[in-house]
Amino acid sequence: MKARRAIFDRYVRALGDIEGIHFMPELEGTMSNRWLTTLTIDQQALGVTPMDIISALVAENIEARPVWKPLHLQPLFDGVQYYPHEEGWSVSDELFANGICLPSGSSMTAEEQNRVIDVFLHAIQR
Question: In the chain, at which end, N or C, are there fewer CB atoms within 10 A of the end residue's CB?
């Protein structure tokens, strides 16, 4: 858990002050194991989509992916009634549309993480 939290913290230090990037918060009174490093982007503020960033990482042989696809969007649940969080707004849809999972394996080196950060930063430059 300590290694994964350190990886998360390094990403936050490198990317967290950029307008339009939001890391998943840690709720007061809790301690996340940070098994995954996830973030959301404001596509308008950054001028890119999550898939633009993911594609840039994949082009450099860096594995990244969108956050999990909500169950109600999967074929198995086609036709099943879905109850959003509020009328006209679904948290899970928003996270899926704007979320990215960055590499965060416990054995990841600082150099490997710096490479992810560099490619990420290059992908969001306009």
Answer: C
Residue 83 lies in a domain: no
For residue 82, tell me if it sits in a domain. no
Distance CA 115, CA 62 (A): 9
41-68 pLDDT tens trace: 999 999 999 999 999 999 999 999 999 9
Contact 12, 32 (CB under 8 A): no
pTM of the model: 0.91
